Amino acid sequence: MPEKVIVSWSGGKDxxxxxxxxxDDEKYEVEGLFSxxxxxxxxxxxxxxxxxxxxxxxxxxxxxxEIVTVPENASNQVxxxxxxxxxxxxxxxKIHKVVYADLFLEDIRAFRDELLxxxxxAGIYPLWxxxxxxxxxEVIEKRYQAxxxxxxxQKLDKRVPGTLYDQEFLHSLSPDLDPCGENGEFxxxxxxxxxxxxxxKVQKGERFETLSGRxxxxxxxxx
Length: 223
Fold this sequence. Notes:
Residues 4-220 form the Diphthamide synthase domain. The protein is α/β, with parallel strands linked by helices. Helices cover 31% and strands 27% of the residues. It is globular, with a radius of gyration of 17 Å.
């Protein structure tokens, strides 16, 4: 009998590929997605994608999405309390494993695993160790359509948000930048691909900045 899992969902290309890998694996049964958003802005932290677009993504994927709100600039203690409540809800539904799309950052995985262990849960990392170049190539090969939503302006030009994540974008990256943005260089939003029942039509709005210009974003709206 397949094991029930839930997927941590950022709305980006890596989350989409991780989701596809567990859906394709007969060992697992995906019960849904969950995202954490800022209690104040109702946006995904750093990515700055609005909650309503995450909900629409889940709709066209045909999966339920649980939104968890976290206070802005929450301490680790507050964050862990929020996550404990969420994990308990999963366990009540006999879900004991969470799927994450991390590629290689050991400190982030260690933080996740420690928090999961405290809550008698465990993590699944279907993209771990594959390598960023392979993951990027697979995203393109499987024809996921994604747009760059956010860049770290210390690493990429502030005008990049709104650019498509495609071969042209990958070729434009300098060799010191990760092609999946795993070091925080950029973030994406997926609006079509093999798992989508229909494309999510989005249009680009104005660019805006956060953290005194450190991050540049593009406002996405559904057409």
